[in-house]
């Protein structure tokens, strides 16, 4: 069925360091459908993260009241991190676009794994994360993660990492 996974992703401390140095995120494959994971992640990042979030989808004009760009090349900035919600077969093209705009990191969502893309991206100097949810990882490192991956609403006196 699928080949064995041999590529090793970054450790938890390395993922935390990546998130700490990230200022802008482009969500490729953003959807205006509330039942889609990309919509949920965009909602979370816009409301609960410090990131400047840019939405990319060639078939939408606005999502969550925000402008949507047809491609990474159309963004007004070079995103630090490209968060990808696209089919497996589209991932090499998304990597080409990511490299073309000069982004520093490629993040493939839960269930998304493409070893050739990961190796090409790393060889080009990108940080790569695969098969992990950016929302869950951000919440995990910033105290907002319940077992189900949702904010528990618990108020803590712990100071947020700077």
TrEMBL record:
Question: Which top-level group of life is the source organism from?
Answer: Bacteria
What InterPro entries has UniProt attached to this entry? CoA-bd (IPR003781), NAD(P)-bd_dom_sf (IPR036291)
User: What Pfam family is a match for this entry?
Assistant: CoA_binding_2
The segment(s) forming the CoA-binding domain are 18-112
Q: What is this protein called?
A: CoA-binding protein
- What species was this sequence derived from? Cellulomonas oligotrophica
Q: What broad taxonomic lineage does this protein's source fall under?
A: Bacteria, Bacillati, Actinomycetota, Actinomycetes, Micrococcales
């Amino acid at each position: 069925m699928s080949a064995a996974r041999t590529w090793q992703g970054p450790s938890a401390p390395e993922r935390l360091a990546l998130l700490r140095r990230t200022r802008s995120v482009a969500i490729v494959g953003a959807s205006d459908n509330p039942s889609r994971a990309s919509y949920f992640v965009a909602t979370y990042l816009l409301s609960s993260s410090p990131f400047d979030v840019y939405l990319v989808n060639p078939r939408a004009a606005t999502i969550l009241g925000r402008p949507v760009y047809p491609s990474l090349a159309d963004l007004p900035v070079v995103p630090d991190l490209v968060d990808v919600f696209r089919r497996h077969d589209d991932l090499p093209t998304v990597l080409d676009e990511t490299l073309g705009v000069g982004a520093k990191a490629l993040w493939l969502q839960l269930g998304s794994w493409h070893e050739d893309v990961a190796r090409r991206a790393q060889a080009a100097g990108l940080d790569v994360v695969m098969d992990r949810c950016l929302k869950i990882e951000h919440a995990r490192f910033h105290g907002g993660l319940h077992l189900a991956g949702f904010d528990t609403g618990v108020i803590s006196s712990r100071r947020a990492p700077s």
